[in-house]
Specification:
The chain is built from 6 helices and 7 strands, in the order βββαββαββαααα. The protein is α+β, with helices and mostly antiparallel strands. The strands form 3 sheets. Strands 3-2-4 form a 3-stranded antiparallel beta sheet, covered by helices on one side. A hairpin with a 2-residue loop joins strand 6 and strand 7. The longest helix is centred in the last third of the chain and has 22 residues. The radius of gyration is 21 Å and the shape is elongated.
């Protein structure tokens, strides 16, 4: 299906001092929010650069694979684009004839309603909680591998710090 959209300017807010401007099509905002978190992507009123102010026409059959290739990040072991639109049909349906992508209700929109959490979901939730208890600012966009690595590194650092401050009698 042919779709015509205007580019927009968004900002990836990494911190108060670090904001990266991005020129994207409207449907890419949803992918960026899934990757970085909704609170880290802000659509601005800024105009795109001169060469990107004209409407852009694309075929959804070409756009979906392009997005999958461009946004290769994994969210819960799944391509970021697939985590938003499970397949080409879901992607096409989001444009419902008006050239504007419908925004999925939440990042987990690809999950069937009422789906029970899997063991992997529960493991990830436990790891996020454990990371937060250790003072790690983890979120649901982190992979299980990253959570495990950061938790192990934090525990190792805490152990080494405790060992460095221990008296010789405590180390026996």
């Amino acid at each position: 299906m042919k779709v015509t959209l205007n580019y927009l300017v968004a900002q990836l807010v990494r911190s108060q001092d670090q904001k990266t401007p991005l020129v994207v099509l409207p449907h890419e905002v949803t992918i960026l929010e899934a990757i970085h978190g909704e609170d880290h992507i802000v659509v601005t009123e800024d105009q795109p650069p001169e060469g990107l102010r004209e409407p852009h026409t694309f075929d959804t059959e070409d756009e979906y694979p392009r997005l999958q290739e461009y946004y290769k990040q994994s969210i819960a072991g799944q391509n970021a684009v697939v985590s938003v639109w499970k397949d080409q049909k879901a992607f096409d349906a989001d444009f419902d004839g008006d050239d504007e992508p419908a925004k999925p209700a939440k990042k987990d929109a690809a999950k069937p309603a009422g789906k029970q959490p899997t063991e992997a979901d529960l493991e990830k939730a436990e790891l996020i909680e454990q990371a937060k208890e250790l003072g790690i600012k983890a979120n649901s966009n982190w992979s299980v591998e990253r959570l495990k690595t950061d938790i192990a590194a934090k525990k190792d650092a805490q152990f080494k710090a405790a060992l460095a401050t221990a008296t010789p009698a405590e180390t026996k």
